[in-house]
Task: structure prediction
Amino acid sequence: MFSDNSSLRKIIRTGLLVFAIMGIISGTMPLAIISPAIFTGTSMPEQLPAFTIVAVVNYGFAILLLVVRSRFFKK
Result:
């Protein structure tokens, strides 16, 4: 895809990896916030679905970026 411009290819690969790592971290934050409440048995009926959706969307986005990085930007 970018075989003639290797520096642009490296920049895009690095950017995809950085954004995937940021997506994984931002998906883990809501789970870290709600996990003490889940393990102690505290009721969080209003926040649990929202935090779960945020985590799933962030993890899905990170997986998508890693798939694009591995499929289209092979070394």
